[in-house]
Amino acid sequence: MAVPPAFLFLSLRTASNAAADQSPKTGGRKPLGNIMPGRKETIETDVKISPPGGCLPPADAYALWAQTYDSDPNPLLALEERELLPLLPRLEGAFVLDIACGTGRWLNLLLARGARHGVGFDLSHEMLGQARRKQALRESLLRADCTAIPVATGVTDLAICSFAASYVADLSLLSCELSRVLKKGGRLILTDFHPSGLERGWRRTFRYNGEVVEIVNFKFSLDQLCRTFREQRFELDQMICPSFGEAERPIFRRCGKERLLEQSQAGPAIFISSFRLASTDLPGNR
Q: Nearest CA to 187 among 127, 76, 117, 274?
C-alpha cells in the first residue's frame, strides 16, 4: 500500500497498530487585567527533547518540528482553513482563545478578523518561540496546558482548539476546563483528524532530519467527543467532516505526491465541530 508523504502529517499503518484508544497591544485592545489574573504560566518545567525516530510525546515532537512547521506543506491545515473560515462568527469586540496554539496560526487569523483581544496557549516552548516571531502575537502568548488554562472563569467569547484534542488522554478534563473559561453562550470550535482516518491506518507523523517521527495521540469516536462535551453543557451546533478536494491538489503536486490525492479521498480527512455553551444543564445530564 502506498504511504502518503509526511507533509500530510499522517501516514498509513494497520488498524491494529493505530493510535492508542482513548500579543497585540495595538488597535485599542484592552489590557489583559482581570482576564488573566497575574498572567502566570502554569507549566514551569523544561521539555526534554527526545531523540528523533519512534513515537514521541507531543511536547517533545513539536520541539523538533517547530522550526519547519509553518513552512512545511500541509494539506490538512489548508483543508481546515478552507472549511472553517466561512463558519466563524462575528468577532468584533470578542475575547478569543487559541488552545494549543502552536505557532499562533489561528490566533493570528482571529485577531486579523476583528477580535478585540486574544491569547494563545501551548505547552511547547519551541512552537511558542516561532509564534513570537509574529509581531502581532508577541504579547498574547503563554505557556500552559490546555487542561489548566490561566484565564478567569466565564470571560471568553470564542475558543478554538485545532488538531489538539487527540493529544489529551482524558477528554473530560479538556471539556471541563473549556466550559469554565467560556461565557454562557460562548462558542467552541474543535477540529482534529477524523477517527475514520485512524481506522484506515493514518498516523500523526512529520519528518525530522530525513526520519519519520510519530506523535503519541489518543483515539476517540465523534459520539464520545459529543457526549463528553455535552456533559459540560456544550450544545453541538454543527459538525462537518470534509475530505481533501481540488483546492488541496497544488499542495500534493508541490511535493510530487499528486497521485496520492485520490487515495486520500477515500473518506473524511478531518472533522470540524462547533459547540455553544448552554447556560443550564442540558436535558439528560441531570
A: 274
Fold of 35-277: Rossmann fold (3.40.50)
pTM: 0.81
Report the amino acid identity of residue 264.
S
Mean pLDDT in the chain? 83
Q: Where are the domains of the chain?
A: 35-277
Which residue did the predictor score with more confidence, 138 or 235? Answer: 235
Question: Burial level of 255, CB count in 10 A (0-12/13-18/19+)?
Answer: middle
pLDDT digits (tens, 9 = 90+) for 71-102: 998 999 999 999 999 999 889 999 999 999 99
Identify whether the C-beta of residue 254 lies closer than 8 Å to the C-beta of residue 233: no
